Task: structure prediction
Amino acid sequence: MSAMRFFLTLILALIVPATASLSQAAEPTPQTETASLTTPKQRLDALFLDLKKERDESKARELADRIRLEWQESGSATVNLLMQSADKAITDDKKPVALDILDQVIVLAPSYVEGWNRRATLHYQMGNYRKSMSDINRVLAIEPRHFGAIAGMATMLEAAGKNELALRAWQQFLDIYPSDRKAQEQFGELAERLAGSRT
Result:
């Protein structure tokens, strides 16, 4: 498959369904209005609703950090231990070892979003861009609001010269996390570059 077809396939798989899911996720539900948010989904929905409304950059960053903590909790002591081992291997610059561990995480917990996200990041660091994009696809299938994965997708699309698709990805990011300064800058710079190329 050519690079062009590969990226177009990814966009059909990623941006369109993810955007549809985002429109549903943006609607407040009665659950998010309740005082006791007991399930991970309820907590995440409430946090994402607050993140979308929050305009203060530092307060939004705190909300984003709380969302990341929710994503990191797998509900399995074994998976949590494997993730710690993978982190240590990455810190020790033993990327192939970390990759093997993350492969195990995904086999044990295929619906655990952070296993896929961490492996996508590692593939990117190792220069395995197609594998990284494939893992991002899985991340967004599980959690369409995963702003970290969307940022990774936008970065790789831009690096591949797919600037219009990258711009759509940054817009998708900002729909979820509007007060992120770096994303605002990336979106603005890319929009200016595209506008300049059309004149």
Remarks:
- The mean pLDDT is 86.
- The CA atoms of residues 123 and 131 lie 6 Å apart.
- The two ends are 33 Å apart (CA to CA).
- Residues 3-25 form the longest helix (23 residues).
